[in-house]
């Protein structure tokens, strides 16, 4: 084995004992002794060391391990036996703290080069949801490009429609820049939610039971709230999101994700991809979702912006919703004009058009979905149409139609 330099961050007598054992070892040298995980990471990014040997209690999390691996430094975590599975799930190698021959166990891990290569997840192609145990019925991302076309309104009402049909929906507020799902349903926006879930992911303690405990129930919808301040977006890293969606997929029902706006920014940030990027959340929803509903706004600027964004997508989604359709913004015959424009310039054959509806404002004021506050509202019927694409229901005969049938029968008699 060629001589390797290690970054060492341990505490107490264990560190001193290891240093004594390594003193006369020709193949391993201590490149730097570090006080904590932050110092280890700084040294790794500076190109110092081939491997990091760090105590589990000195700041080891999932993102930390990924950043070490991206810097070409192997992560070896000194931990108790019962912690092994959690740290291996993060992608680290584990050195059991109470090993009989600590140095021999360390040398075995240093010789093992199986974790040096950083694996990059391939994009996941969207496909029809599979009916199998332990898998969500569908992960539906409600997304858009730049602007505020009404993603949250659509996500909340889609979740409400699926709840009414027995879909057991989980509604996730993943809008990093303007979380508002909880307010829309009358829940405390400062409660636990996405941030707590991602912290648990980083520690390797997030599971389906933890997901359920972090949600709140309203109108048959389980809600995982979002970040209460937009400046906290850096708490959301790509590596944590991958494991987060793995757990979300175990939800026993439908999952609706109210996504953030897609910022017109590069995917890599200024720290060279070691830190979170502004569009990590949007990209992760795009890849994790089994279906995406892309939302646009029904005015001249919004439609132009939507078409350009749609045409730039490599794999455009099949569900399109255009919100706030009205003659005052789209001209006479607004619905027909928008349908023709989308078909002609974007090849979109069957968009869902959501009319401008004052009942939406009343629903927001009442902090309830349309199905509760205004079940006959035109906007609610559009939400029904969208939900039919995921969980169809039998057509119900309206009471007025039933009465007409009875009147007709009586007259025939």
Topology:
Layout lengths: L3 E6 L2 H11 L5 E6 L3 H9 L5 E5 L6 H9 L3 E6 L4 H6 L3 E4 L5 H10 L26 E7 L6 H14 L5 E4 L7 H4 L9 H10 L4 H7 L1 E3 L2 E4 L13 H11 L5 E8 L18 H9 L2 E7 L2 H13 L6 E7 L1 H4 L3 H13 L5 E4 L2 H9 L3 H4 L4 H11 L10 H14 L1
Parallel strand pairs: 1-2, 1-3, 3-4, 4-5, 6-10, 6-11, 7-9, 7-10, 11-12, 12-13
Antiparallel strand pairs: 8-9
Helix pairs in contact: 6-17, 8-10, 10-11, 12-14
Describe it for me?
The chain has 413 residues and is an alpha/beta fold. The protein has 2 domains: 108 residues, Response regulator (Rossmann fold), CATH 3.40.50; 251 residues, 3-Layer(aba) Sandwich (Rossmann fold), CATH 3.40.50. It has 18 helices and 13 strands. The strands form 2 sheets. The protein has an 8-stranded mixed β-sheet with strand order 8-9-7-10-6-11-12-13, with helices on both faces. A 5-stranded parallel β-sheet has the order 2-1-3-4-5, sandwiched between helices. Helix 3 links the parallel strand 3 and strand 4. The C terminus is likely disordered.
Low-confidence runs (pLDDT<50, min 5 residues)?
A: 115-133, 396-413
Q: Please list the strands of the largest sheet in the order they lie side by side.
A: 8-9-7-10-6-11-12-13
Q: What value does the average pLDDT take?
A: 85
Global geometry? elongated
CATH architecture of the largest domain: 3-Layer(aba) Sandwich
Domains, number: 2
Helix count, DSSP H or I runs of 4 or more residues: 18
Structural class: alpha/beta
Percent of residues in beta strands? Answer: 15-25%
C-alpha termini separation: 99 Å
Write down the Rg. 27 Å
Query: What's the CATH H-level homologous superfamily of the largest domain?
Result: P-loop containing nucleotide triphosphate hydrolases
CATH class annotation of the largest domain: Alpha Beta
The count of DSSP E runs of length 2 or more, i.e. the number of strands, is 13
